[in-house]
């Protein structure tokens, strides 16, 4: 509803504020205003200055508390507002008068409840416009920036772990779901650059965030969970341009009738036919996924591996378990990728190094007694040939002769600049070896089919970049 | 190729042998014949007696080694053979003469390599028939029984952890894949009753195993990975009957052209159109899954929760995150299940206990500030009504007021005898609370969509049991 000012510098203070006012800061452990203020004042090494605002308190955590944002003896870049909805307009008016640049309204009770809430939301939009501020929310959990440590999430660390710095950004229309995603990525060791809960999108919407993130040097892959698209034309214009620079993986909920109706209750999302959405996403190069597992699986691949050159889709499958190889091929072909038979010449080259019971047709089945060396030969001869564009490697570390050297072999095979994903099925040992592989930027998946899906994403994005359809 | 003798008692010695001969036992740490003999002699508390057979050794682990199975001064119920393929017929002849009842041939180099291997396999089939023995394999890893501790898997525990005793059985045509599944279930804490790698199925095939497991009181759910069906008519007759007693979850690989061709290289599986397979599976009540994650997800649900009464498919969704609720509904409806709007009457009853911003249409969105009590009310009023047949509960433990009591609430809701599955998205805390839920036999999934899929399995099996299509 508010025009984007074209350049994205107006959004910078959400992520790199020098000064932050937490309005509704509290000294009661566990309260929303307490957690948020703690995040800035002591929790996560935020480099800027944080000021608590609460008319009923003198100090919080030893820091002088102001009765109003206007009383703070400093300029304020970012105000985080966590007070009952009905008081928000007044406080935003004060922010405007103070010259605050960016405001995050955590409070709920706006358009998502309809009636009076919708009027309140109109009111804060007017104030935002009038003072040329930018607004994230209302009804959101705001911003998490793993680099600057801006963290407006009101869930204490004991409830929700914070992920490490990485190259994946998350934009989410659902605050609760974003918090569980952050907790999850933290446990998985998957790094994030930024996460933004956009809530009711009264001002800043998904398109704005995509544009900002496209210019963010720390973000390599953008992921998004949305229930509605705020401004269709703007969305199409912006995403079409951005996806040529960075992949956007999107999860659009409300696919079914019931899902759409639930989304309408949740965020007031209007129903648009899912086929239309699908067609638009395809047209602008968005990679659509069906659930958050797929979203993180693809993000992990696109963050660390190149997409296939010129959108090639010929996949080499190397395995030490025949069954797992079949599963990978089934899934790859179901997704429209190719698992071409290797040339007789290449097969002969491979068999010079292998015992006769190995099968080198593709999948290359190195058999249960393989060591890392057989993998090295398959990957080197395979990837340096012009017969395949990428490799899906299955490592079942239960077998007796496969040692940790296999990790180095896969790492070295990255020099051919063709994407590699790994499937490592198993338990504790598989987990240990998977972490080692991930240290070398190799994405690892717990079953062959998820590795195949990740490979699909790398091919898909390669096709989009190279105009192959 | 060998007729089934009708009753399954002939297979009992694979799982409950009093005496076992390990032919090809070795004293060299890590060798196949060493690991298998260790499993029986010291590893896993096998209750029977184990005898090593190796003409070149006097003793292994302090136990006297015989030159031939015929020299063992005891009757032998089960012989496990791990010697080069070409020596197997001679040794099996000796087993027959000794009166051995069951034989597991671990060795590879039979029909899977064609030519001479196929002839060798014919030979051991003849010997099996002649002496009325039963044979598992060749080219397999044999049997793991979590109750009797029969364990012929040649992978040491440091490579492959053994799962605890539970109610799920696994039948697998792929040995390597079975070993990674066992390792995985061990790490996940999912218990198994038995796991059988059937290899080339020269005698005992998937149908025999299904029948044996259907009569096994410790097995509640049968899961299977197959690349081919050995005897179509037998398979149909047996599964049709068994599925009325116990669910069979099946993963049939080789769905695509490439997958089928890879399966042919792996186990010589003949290609049958996947549509035909699908139709047959449906006709006999098999629940087909696409990957091992789905297989274990469904097995976990069917092992611990009842299927829906009379195959009812009306699902109550209770959540503390709107987005996660939408995801669950999307997936449930996509799978053909119902998420019916609750009656006005029930909605009113619920709202008497809830703050006005809760949404009770279905999904019931208890909002981010919910405690366990709101869950209790939703589950009790919902499940005791006749409006729903089952509940999918989403617990995002990141939110501030949701304590461990929620686990007890879900546990208590089981008294309504309607199936319940839970989705718990997150990291460390979610994992801890998930384990607690699992202690009360409540299956927990890491994303709403996987919980929805598990619910689909419970409905599907309910429909099959009650002749609803």
Describe the overall structure.
Two copies of one chain form a homodimer. Chain A contains 16 helices and 18 strands. Chain A folds into two domains: 8-301, 3-Layer(aba) Sandwich (Rossmann fold), CATH 3.40.50; 307-465, Rossmann fold (3-Layer(aba) Sandwich), CATH 3.40.50.261. The longest helix of chain A has 18 residues, at 448-465. Chain A has helices spanning 12-15, 32-43, 88-98, 116-130, 175-188, 206-214, 232-242, 257-267, 274-283, 292-304, 322-334, 344-351, 372-384, 405-413, 428-439, 448-465; strands at 19-23, 49-53, 59-60, 63-64, 78-81, 102-105, 134-136, 142-145, 165-172, 192-197, 221-226, 248-252, 287-288, 315-319, 364-365, 390-394, 420-423, 444-445. Chains A and B meet through helix 5, helix 8, helix 11, helix 15 and helix 16 of A and helix 5, helix 8, helix 11, helix 15 and helix 16 of B.
Chain-wise SSE layout:
Two copies of one chain form a homodimer.
Chain A: H1 12-15, E1 19-23, H2 32-43, E2 49-53, E3 59-60, E4 63-64, E5 78-81, H3 88-98, E6 102-105, H4 116-130, E7 134-136, E8 142-145, E9 165-172, H5 175-188, E10 192-197, H6 206-214, E11 221-226, H7 232-242, E12 248-252, H8 257-267, H9 274-283, E13 287-288, H10 292-304, E14 315-319, H11 322-334, H12 344-351, E15 364-365, H13 372-384, E16 390-394, H14 405-413, E17 420-423, H15 428-439, E18 444-445, H16 448-465
Parallel strand pairs in A: 1-2, 1-5, 5-6, 6-7, 9-10, 9-11, 11-12, 12-13, 14-15, 14-16, 16-17, 17-18
Antiparallel strand pairs in A: 3-4, 8-10
């Amino acid at each position: 509803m508010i025009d984007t000012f074209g350049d994205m510098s107006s959004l910078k203070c959400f992520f790199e504020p020098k000064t932050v006012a937490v309005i509704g800061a509290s000294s009661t452990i566990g309260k929303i205003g307490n957690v948020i203020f703690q995040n800035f004042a002591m929790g996560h090494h935020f480099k800027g200055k944080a000021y608590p605002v609460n008319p009923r308190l003198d100090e919080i955590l030893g820091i002088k508390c102001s009765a109003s944002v206007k009383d703070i003896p400093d300029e304020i870049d970012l105000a985080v507002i966590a007070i009952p909805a009905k008081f928000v307009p007044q406080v935003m008016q004060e922010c405007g008068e103070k010259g605050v640049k960016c405001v995050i309204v955590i409070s709920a009770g706006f358009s998502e409840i309809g009636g009076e809430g919708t009027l309140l939301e109109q009111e804060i939009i007017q104030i935002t416009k009038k003072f040329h501020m930018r607004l994230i929310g209302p009804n959101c959990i705001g911003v998490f920036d793993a680099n600057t440590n801006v963290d407006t999430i009101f869930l204490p660390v004991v409830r929700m772990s914070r992920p490490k710095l990485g190259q994946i950004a998350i934009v989410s229309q659902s605050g609760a779901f974003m918090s569980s995603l952050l907790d999850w990525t933290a446990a998985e060791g998957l790094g994030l650059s930024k996460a933004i809960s956009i809530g009711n999108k009264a001002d800043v919407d998904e398109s704005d965030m995509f544009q900002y993130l496209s210019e963010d040097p720390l973000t390599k892959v953008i992921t998004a969970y949305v229930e509605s698209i705020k401004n269709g034309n703007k969305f199409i214009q912006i995403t079409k341009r951005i996806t040529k620079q960075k992949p956007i993986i999107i999860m659009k909920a409300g696919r079914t009738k019931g899902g759409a109706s639930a989304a309408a209750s949740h965020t007031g999302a209007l129903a648009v036919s899912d086929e239309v959405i699908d067609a638009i996403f395809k047209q602008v190069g968005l990679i659509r996924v069906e659930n958050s597992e797929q979203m993180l699986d693809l993000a992990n691949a696109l963050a660390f591996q190149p997409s296939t050159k010129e959108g090639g889709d010929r996949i080499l499958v190397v395995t030490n378990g025949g069954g797992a190889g079949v599963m990978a091929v089934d899934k790859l072909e179901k997704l429209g990728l190719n698992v071409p038979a290797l040339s007789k010449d290449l097969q002969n080259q491979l068999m010079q190094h292998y015992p006769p019971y190995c099968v080198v047709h593709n999948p290359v089945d190195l058999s249960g007694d393989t060591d890392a060396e057989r993998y090295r030969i398959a990957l080197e001869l395979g990837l340096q040939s012009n017969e395949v564009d990428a490799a899906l490697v299955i490592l079942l570390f239960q077998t007796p002769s496969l040692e940790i050297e296999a990790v180095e072999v896969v790492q070295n095979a990255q020099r051919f600049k063709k994407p590699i994903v790994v499937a490592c099925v198993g338990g504790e040992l598989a987990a240990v070896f998977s972490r080692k592989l991930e240290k070398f930027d190799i994405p690892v998946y717990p079953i062959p089919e998820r590795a195949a899906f990740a490979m699909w994403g790398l091919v898909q994005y390669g096709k989009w970049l190279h105009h192959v359809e």
